[in-house]
Amino acid sequence: LIANAENMGYPAANNQGLRCVGLDQGSFDNAPDYALLLNPDTEMLPDVLSKVIAYAQKNASIGVLGPKLVRLDGSLDMACRRSFPSPEISFYRLVGLSKLFPKHRTFGRYNLTYLDEDEIAEVDSVVGAFMMVRKQAIEQVGYLDEAFFMYGEDLDWAYRIKQAGYRVVYYPEVTVLHVKRASSRQFPRSKVEFWRAMEIFYRKYYAVNTPLIFHCMIILTVRILTTLMQWRIKIFH
């Protein structure tokens, strides 16, 4: 158990854990074959880990594996399989097209809602609430990016791991409960961090190829949404 004196952020704390189990840069020989990011608000059956490891062992091309996550009401936690938030995909999400046409292969890409939730699929990313990563993938791409604080670091890791030639797989043969209890007081703050993370991800991977006028529109939109959430925090909390 590591007890930090302050909140370092999700990626920094997980990197601390990775180093403690031997997944240190330059010394991976004695490290475990897989690392698992697992949120404390998840619950799973005893055989979940053995099943996901067995599947990964049979498929050496898999760099990241995530199970089917469900909420308390039994519904799918939509974040457990998703596409990278490119400007196009994020636009469809922001204007509501992904909700209006969830089964559409263009508009439904944000959470891949056009896919059968009970079929194994190669995806862009799974969620950091349960994210199993192969040791060799970490050795190639490095740790979680600590520029993020509590959102986006899983997307960024999956992006780099896919760029290194590995596959990211959604594996619904096992199911994990994700309680995900967030209070109304926490919600605005989490949205601020979410939009900050989306700006970091956009600047890192998409900004260089985005025409200037669209780049300015994207940054302005993100800043406005972030500011609105900050105002909400000041007014109501």
Q: What does this protein structure show overall?
A:
With 237 residues, the chain is an alpha+beta fold. It is 41% helix and 15% strand. Strands 1, 2, 3, 4, 5 and 6 form a 6-stranded mixed beta sheet that branches. α7 packs antiparallel against α8.
Offer a few descriptive terms:
237 residues; alpha+beta; Spore Coat Polysaccharide Biosynthesis Protein SpsA, Chain A; 2 domains; 6-stranded mixed β-sheet; 41% helix
Shape: globular
Mind summarizing the main beta sheet?
6 strands, mixed
CATH class of the largest domain: Alpha Beta
Q: Do you know the CATH topology of the largest domain?
A: Spore Coat Polysaccharide Biosynthesis Protein SpsA, Chain A
Low-confidence stretches: none
- Reading the helices and strands in chain order gives HEEHEHHEEHHEHH
Tell me which CATH architecture of the largest domain applies here: Alpha-Beta Complex
SSE-based structural type: alpha+beta
Number of helical stretches of at least 4 residues: 8
Distance between the termini: 33 Å
